[in-house]
Amino acid sequence: MSRVTLSRYLIEQTRSNNTPADLRFLIEVVARACKEISHHVSKGALGGVLGSMGTENVQGEVQKKLDVISNDILLEANEWGGHLAGMASEEMDNAYQIPGRYPKGAYLLVFDPLDGSSNIDVNVSVGTIFSVLRCPNEYLSQNETLNENAFLQPGTEQVAAGYAIYGPQTMLILTLGNGVKGFTLDRELGSFVLTHENICVPETTAEFAINMSNQRHWEAPVKRYVDELLAGETGPLQKNYNMRWIASMVADVHRILTRGGLFMYPRDAREPSKPGKLRLMYEANPMSFIIEQAGGASTNGYERILDIKPESLHQRVSVILGSKQEVERVTAYHKE
Ligand code: P6P
């Protein structure tokens, strides 16, 4: 059977009326930009792109050269196509306005251009995370500046989400709201090829991911739950658990999509004013959409992440996602 490329998959989705042509075009453009980012990431020291810019982003985080390069690649790839009303990124304080010389479209693209970039200099997998929303009619205008409030929609409004992971293979994981597909980059062809037809998160797991160095800062429900995980078969969960923490959300989530697991980045006492470290719009929401579409679950400890009504573009959130049974357990502890 001939191999199904991303382009063919998207054409077939359009034919089955699941994916409007301009959304198909959007995904194709984002995928092409991810191929270019993969090219730069894989050059490493040979490309003169490692290390920091000596600047900070809106999060107050040091910007790596590749953060900025990746952000620019996504902006330049998407701004001219006529499918977007605007863009927003972890690397930019404000929403990106489509230049007046280009037509505007009906979608909003939100992304973390290079998540986990602190891992780049040590050659550990990183990735690009993206989320697609419709621009509400009241904000659609060819001539007026896009109001940032257009982006402040709950994750349930996403029409597509995905990530590219730049690891031993470069893969694109995509959901259009009808399951999760995986595409592997064939560098000889230059195409993403469908290799994972129907990705499903196992409902149970014996593996968890959390940064244990923050243990003393966690709230009681998380401390209780992790203590039970560490107690293994001698404790109430009556089985032994393994732990992984890559400190690259794309890589940790990809492992969970592949073999199950639980990912936690809970709020902690280090910065009590912040509800968590990870960003809602371009990390938690797209990853939660993907995880739920794959049969998993995702909460902030109290409510479904996809139901959260954003109040600001760079809003942070606690994240507990992965195998449904464990997400439900630790969420129940928060509600006791
Ligand atoms: P820590 C990467 O900077 C990131 O945003 C996620 O990709 C990752 O899960 C998390 O932060 C790692 O945080 O505090 O363990 O370095």
Automatic annotation (TrEMBL):
Positions bound to Mg(2+) 1: 90, 112, 114
Family that this chain belongs to: Belongs to the FBPase class 1 family.
What's one GO BP annotation on this UniProt entry? Answer: sucrose biosynthetic process
**Primary residence:** cytoplasm
Q: Where in the cell is it found?
A: Cytoplasm
Ranges for domain Fructose-1-6-bisphosphatase class 1 C-terminal come to 201-335
Per UniProt, what is one GO molecular function of this protein?
Answer: fructose 1,6-bisphosphate 1-phosphatase activity
**Transmembrane intervals:** none
Q: In which pathway does it act?
A: Carbohydrate biosynthesis
Reactions that this protein is recorded to catalyse: beta-D-fructose 1,6-bisphosphate + H2O = beta-D-fructose 6-phosphate + phosphate
Q: For Mg(2+) 2, which residues are the binding ones?
A: 112, 115, 283
Keyword list, A-Z: Carbohydrate metabolism, Cytoplasm, Hydrolase, Magnesium, Metal-binding
- Entry's cofactor comment: Binds 2 magnesium ions per subunit.
Matching NCBIfam families? PRK09293.1-1, PRK09293.1-3, PRK09293.1-4
Q: What is its EC number?
A: 3.1.3.11
What protein name does the entry list? Answer: Fructose-1,6-bisphosphatase class 1
Its assembly, as annotated, is: Homotetramer.
Q: Which domain of life is it from?
A: Bacteria
One cellular component term (GO) for this entry is: cytosol
